[in-house]
Amino acid sequence: MGIGLRLPLVEALTAAPAPVDFLEIIVEDHVGISDLPRQRLDVMAARYPLVAHGVSLNLLGAEPLDLEHLGRVRALLRAHRMPYFTDHLCWSASGGHRHHDLLPAPYDPELVPYVAARARFVQDFLGVPFGIENLSSYVRWGRDRMTEWDFLRAVVEASGTWYLLDVNNVYVSAQNHGFDPLAYLASVRWDRVLQVHLAGHLVRPDGLRHDTHDRAVDAEVWALYREAWRMGGPFPTLIEWDDRIPPLADVLAEVARARGLHAP
C-alpha cells in the first residue's frame, strides 16, 4: 500500500515514519533544472521505496516520443532504483503544444500496432517494466471500433508491457459512458498488473463524474476495488490525492481502509 508523494505531505513524511510500503512520485516534478525537488526526493528515498509515474508521455500522440525527457526519466529511475515506470493510454500534445490534459484517442484495432510499438520502445529504453494506465474519460469517438478495455489489453499483449489499473477511472468512465465496470475488470490480464490506483471523484450536478483526486474514495469505487482484489489480488495499491490535500492522517486513513478490504 502506497500514497502519492505530494509537497504538502513532505514535512509529515519526513518527521516520522508513515505506515506505507512505498511512495509514488510524479516524474515531471523531479526532472527539471531545479535542485530542490531532487534534494527532497533524496530524503524521501532514504526512508521509503519509490515508484515512478508520468503524466506527459503522449503515448497515443502522433508526434515522436520525447527522447530527451525519457533520458531524464531513465536517469531518475536508475538513481533511486525504482522498479517500474507508468504513464497513461492517451495523447496530450500535438503541433508542438502540450494540452496539460489526458485525452482519449479512438479505440480502433488499426491503432494497436502503432501504440504497442511506442510502448515497447519506452519499456526497452527505460530498462524497467512499463505500466499503461487507463483514463477517466468524458467523451467518446464516433470511430471507436473496440471497447477501451479490449484496446488496452491488445496494446499490453502486443507490446509485452503491463497495466497500471486505475479502479476509480474504470468506475468514472463506466458511469459516464454507460458500460458495466465489472466487464472491464473481467478483461484484465491480472498477471500483467503492476499496480492499482484509487482516488476520489466529483459528481457534478448534471451527473457527470469528474476525476478530481481531491477527496476520499467513493463507496462504489471501494466496492469495485474489493471485486478487483477478489479477481486478481494481491497487487500494489496506491491512494492518489492531488488537490485539496488533507493532513497525512486523513490520507493514511484511506490506506487503512484499503488494507481492511483485503480480508476474504
Keywords, separated by commas or semicolons:
single chain; about 260 residues; alpha/beta; TIM Barrel; eight-stranded parallel β-barrel; two-stranded antiparallel sheet; globular
Helices and strands in order:
Blueprint: E1 2-4, H1 7-15, E2 22-26, H2 36-45, E3 50-53, H3 67-79, E4 85-88, E5 91-94, E6 97-103, H4 112-126, E7 130-133, H5 148-159, E8 162-166, H6 167-177, H7 181-187, E9 193-198, E10 202-203, E11 209-210, H8 219-232, E12 237-239, H9 248-260
Parallel strand pairs: 1-2, 1-12, 2-3, 3-4, 4-7, 7-8, 8-9, 9-12
Antiparallel strand pairs: 5-6, 10-11
Explained architecture:
- There is one protein chain.
- The mean pLDDT is 94.
- The chain is 39% helix and 19% strand.
- The protein is globular, with a radius of gyration of 18 Å.
- The chain has 264 residues and is α/β, with parallel strands linked by helices.
- The protein is built from 9 helices and 12 strands.
- The chain starts with a strand and ends with a helix.
- The protein has an 8-stranded parallel beta barrel with strand order 1-2-3-4-7-8-9-12, surrounded by 5 helices. Strands 5-6 form a two-stranded antiparallel ribbon. It has a two-stranded antiparallel ribbon with strand order 10-11.
